Protein: Acetyl-coenzyme A synthetase
Amino acid sequence: MAENESKTEEFTLQESRVFAPPAAFAAKAAISGMEAYDKLCAEAASDYEGFWARLARENIDWHKPFTSTLDESNAPFYKWFGDGQLNASYNSLDRNLTNGNADKTAIIFEADDGTVTRATYRELHARVCKFANGLKSRGIKKGDRVIIYMSMSIEGVAAMQACARIGATHSVVFGGFSAKSLHERIIDAGAVAVITADEQLRGGKSLPLKSIVDEALALGGITTIRDVIVYKRTGSNIAFQEGRDTWLHELVDGQSAECEPEWVDAEHPLFILYTSGSTGTPKGVQHATGGFLLWAALTMKWTFDIKPDDVFWCTADIGWVTGHTYIAYGPLAVGATQVVFEGVPTFPHAGRFWETIAKHKVSIFYTAPTAIRSLIKASDVDPKVHPRNFDRSSLRLLGSVGEPINPEAWMWYYKNVGEERCPIVDTFWQTETGGHMITPLPGATPLVPGSCTLPLPGIMTAIVDESGADVPNGQGGILVVKRPWPSMIRTIWNNPDRFRTSYFPDELGGKYYLAGDGAIRNKDTGYFTITGRIDDVLNVSGHRMGTMEIESALVGHPLVAEAAVVGKPDETTGESICAFVVLKQARPSGEDAKKLATELRNWVGKEIGPIAKPKEIRFGDNLPKTRSGKIMRRLLRVLAKGETITQDVSTLENPAILEQLKESA
Ligand code: WTA
Structure:
């Protein structure tokens, strides 16, 4: 962990600025004041199961009520609300038809070019039902897996909801992943269908989707896919395979706008979402219907303090977990109005976020630190795109997710976007946790820039050492969760052993959930600051990337003999990817090295996706290794940062190599 010296940590520990919740905000908040927070925590501490059972009854409409709350008999394969039955789509849509929300706008779709389309709850319900009936007409049924490879759209959300409605388990693959990544996920999930679009529009450019699906399916080895359903977004010319491919509009045409939801057990897998781990191939994180939905709805109320007239905007993509919990399910489950955005923050100009907030009177805005940092830079260069030029009076709450937010970016966000009126919720969580874990409550928690503050009631986070023992406040350690919680990962699809060893390691006693992050608590306040990953997972612009995945992509290139990938701190993207490469031929220099670096970058883009392209590539005759042949990544990290190596290098087999690796191609 010492390797993960984090600037954020240093700053936050010295951070003395504290921002109390505005009185007017606190007065109306769902959880108002720290006493209310403490009371909920005390309830969870005194009767853990009773606490969760109460919340699950209050927040979810159960088709069949549960009588068992938590089943720990097969730990760590925990079961929540095991004998209850529900449907996630019913809870997102149908219940809004009878509670006065039927004609309320559910989704305001802001297209890349600024065109706006809206869907009320009634309309969205009809659309999802037709979609679900269409899927059924193709023989897709409960328990089947469906891959969704789509752009941001109402149809993307409807696709997820339609799967949930018929009990099919969806697995959304981010539209920026390559054919190879898609292929790998289709095979692992054993999916029967792919839902995609002809193309996606981002920043004024159209990018292919359907042709990548074709490419993935042509890679071979896929035996399960029967259908490819295509949403017509741009109308470009695409290849169609008779019998396999169907246009979405033709599929839903003539279908009934009613579809009885398929009632599923609470533990029924709602979705699988692939994410990077420290080793090997991506892990299919499996979530359960009941627990996930409870937390999606409840954190909308607790963390975002959602109110009937709010306009909520989460800028994430449905390809990531944030888009699952806080676009596809959470906002709908609480009957909110939300903006779904197709585009990018910098098109047609870097004031697009602020302009869109003004246009749709957004009141709750949730984005990533990387976006904030890049928009700070952009408004330094071009003052016209500074938030001050746009009306932000509708805003009442801001949120941050995906990576640590450094205090400077936090202060800029607070002052320039939130006009010093809006609390900021810095939400720490993961694909595996299903929803927020450690976050301020906007009407209760005094804010400290750079700290995600305290765990939500019922979430038993702690910091321990390598043997699983608690460490005192003020001392860094490993972040764990001591008790199971409803929205936690249930298993890794197809790989229960990997689930157990990755998340419940024996070294920590086999009972604590290991988050994979380091953290430290403030001596006085007990506030948490996340200090970064303790494994070989990088966080580039809030996207999780495994160093091993990138390394194996690199060594797949015919010229590459060996590669080591490390993260390098980056002002805008948080971390950037730096690859050290040994070729099978002589080390290139000058123009040759540059050319080859470009080729390798594109290669990784094709193998994994553009987000995995190394920013820097350095060539060497070898990598720094110990005499036993272990690559010294710690030294590579120092080199990547451009710092001088002060560590003892006498155990190195080949210390001279360090000199070579200082320069990037
Ligand atoms: C990091 C995204 C600091 C962390 C929801 C975690 C954060 C990984 C924060 C999960 C935050 C997420 N402060 N770090 N507020 N939020 N992280 O699975 O390293 O894409 O383990 O889930 O992002 O990334 P994932």
Q: What stands out?
A: The domain at 541-661 is CATH 3.30.300.30 (GMP Synthetase; Chain A, domain 3). The chain has 20 helices and 30 strands.
